[in-house]
């Protein structure tokens, strides 16, 4: 089966051209003839994996492999003249043998993105993507074609600022993917719609994407989707969010808001998923000011809100059944000024918990705590089988501890759900590192006097604090009022994966963990 995918920023249109065999390149076919390049993503021996694609492809690959041994390892994409191949171009994107236990489907994503971008650079507008998974591949390669298709689409996203200035580089008009079923094509299209929204929110500079402009983008993105969008511009009911935003209120465009995105499908609702997303549109650190150049890139501290908004948008595009999804976005600028909140303040959270502020640069957990308290209220008001998530670029420690992996932590009630999500994340190329909450985490945030119920943080940066991305879970658990209840709660720290190469200033936003969570919500096992 050949699937034709067209992507323009946040709009993705998919038309499935069914009925084509796996060796369709060997046959004369109008859909293939409309393509103007073939991108072959394959492990080594690459000549073997080109088999079945027709003599034109096979001859070119065999000739190239004879003269370039680098093609048997992981190497940069290579553009080859290929008579008889659509467009006369064959782009080889070798992945190496992929025979080690530690190899995973991220190799497919990396090669597909690089190969597809190289085809466009070579002048192609309608490349055909062919992904070959290793023979006898482990289950972690089960979604290799889908992951490759997402990577190809994602490679064509360009920043919103460039698009609005009409300075975006040329991109592909369409993507054709060999071997993608019609159902999977729809899912990929839906995921890409959500990831594009996530990238636009996460990656756009802090004035263009100030708090209420994020809310405006959500209103536009969810128009005619059936998703209810509620914008709360008065955040007095969220005391911790209100405190973080105090210094920003003197500037109209920097004022805070809370956005609620409510997706309710028709029919019976069997599950309720409530997600809190940290949306700090710029993080100066507040009075505990970020210094030594560490403020650059802090416009990306809204990646959690971007991921939650993108996930709800993907679910709406896919039309998921049986699950209600509520996305809660806390959109705030952590500014510095006469009204700044400061360390040592004691503030009651939405859940009524007295929080002593330890460091104003630990603002994200305050935002999440109030959102999670709202999530708990919604869950306790008759929601069907509820579970609560928080998603945030919360700590630098998660990257120091785990590198390019999401840090996942949950309470005991959420352990079976976290088990399933862990498997899906590996399959969709977004692997996680899991940790457990420990007694030391709760001891770390325990009250030091009768004046407070919990302490938000210590005085040091998270990267210099043992268990620096684990103990915030304990704070969230307590300050939100979740602790001691039976409600499943999972926290995902995407501080190391929200942008590529952990380059917060210039890295391309990834859209993690939208594909994994979409699979989770759709019931994939």
Automatic annotation (TrEMBL):
Keywords: Aminopeptidase, Hydrolase, Manganese, Protease, Signal
Location of the Cytosol aminopeptidase domain: 359-366
Organism domain of life: Bacteria
Protein name from the UniProt record: Aminopeptidase
PROSITE patterns attached to this UniProt entry: CYTOSOL_AP
Gene3D superfamilies (alphabetical): Zn peptidases
InterPro entries assigned: Leucine_aapep/pepB, Peptidase_M17_C
First-tier enzyme category under EC: hydrolase
């Amino acid at each position: 089966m050949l699937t034709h995918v067209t992507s323009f920023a946040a709009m993705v249109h998919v038309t499935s051209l069914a009925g084509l065999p796996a060796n369709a390149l060997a046959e004369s076919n109008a859909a293939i003839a409309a393509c103007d390049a073939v991108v072959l993503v394959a492990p080594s021996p690459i000549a073997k994996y080109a088999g079945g694609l027709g003599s034109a492809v096979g001859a070119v690959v065999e000739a190239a492999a004879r003269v370039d041994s680098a093609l048997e390892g992981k190497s940069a994409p290579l553009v080859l003249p290929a008579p008889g191949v659509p467009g006369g171009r064959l782009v080889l994107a070798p992945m190496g043998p992929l025979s080690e236990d530690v190899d995973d489907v991220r190799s497919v994503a990396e090669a597909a993105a690089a190969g597809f971008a190289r085809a466009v650079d070579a002048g192609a507008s309608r490349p055909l993507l062919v992904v070959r998974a290793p023979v006898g591949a482990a289950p972690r390669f089960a979604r290799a074609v889908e992951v490759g298709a997402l990577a190809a689409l994602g490679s064509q996203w360009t920043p919103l600022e460039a698009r609005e200035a009409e300075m975006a580089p040329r991109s592909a008009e369409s993507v054709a993917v060999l071997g993608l079923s019609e159902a999977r094509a729809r899912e990929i299209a839906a995921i890409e719609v959500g990831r594009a929204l996530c990238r636009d929110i996460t990656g756009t500079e802090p004035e263009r994407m100030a708090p209420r402009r994020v809310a405006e983008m959500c209103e536009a993105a969810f128009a005619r989707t059936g998703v209810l969008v509620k914008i709360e511009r008065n955040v007095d009911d969220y005391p911790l969010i209100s405190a973080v935003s105090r210094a920003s209120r003197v500037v109209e465009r920097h004022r805070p808001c809370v956005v609620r995105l409510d997706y309710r499908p028709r029919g019976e609702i069997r599950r309720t998923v409530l997600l809190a997303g940290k949306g700090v549109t710029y993080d100066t650190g507040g009075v505990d000011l970020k210094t030594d150049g560490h403020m650059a890139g802090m416009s990306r501290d809204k990646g959690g809100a971007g991921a939650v908004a993108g996930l709800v948008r993907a679910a709406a595009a896919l039309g998921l059944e049986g699950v209600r999804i509520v996305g809660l976005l806390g959109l705030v600028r952590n500014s510095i000024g006469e009204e700044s909140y400061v360390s040592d303040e004691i503030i009651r959270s939405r859940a009524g918990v007295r929080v002593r502020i330890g460091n104003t640069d630990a603002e994200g957990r305050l935002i999440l705590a109030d959102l999670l308290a709202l999530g708990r209220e919604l869950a306790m008001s008759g929601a069907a089988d509820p579970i609560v998530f928080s998603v945030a670029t919360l700590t630098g420690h998660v990257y120091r501890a785990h590198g390019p992996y999401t840090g996942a932590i949950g309470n005991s009630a959420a352990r079976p759900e976290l088990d399933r999500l862990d498997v899906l994340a590996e399959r969709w190329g977004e692997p996680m590192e899991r940790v457990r909450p420990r007694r030391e985490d709760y001891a770390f945030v325990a009250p030091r006097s009768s004046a407070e119920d919990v302490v938000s943080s210590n005085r040091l940066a998270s990267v210099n604090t043992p268990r620096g991305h684990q103990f915030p879970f304990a704070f969230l658990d307590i300050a939100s009022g979740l602790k001691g209840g039976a409600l499943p709660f999972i926290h995902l720290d995407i501080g190391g994966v929200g942008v590529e190469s952990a380059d917060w200033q210039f890295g391309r936003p990834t859209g993690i963990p939208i594909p994994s969570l979409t699979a989770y919500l759709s019931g994939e096992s």
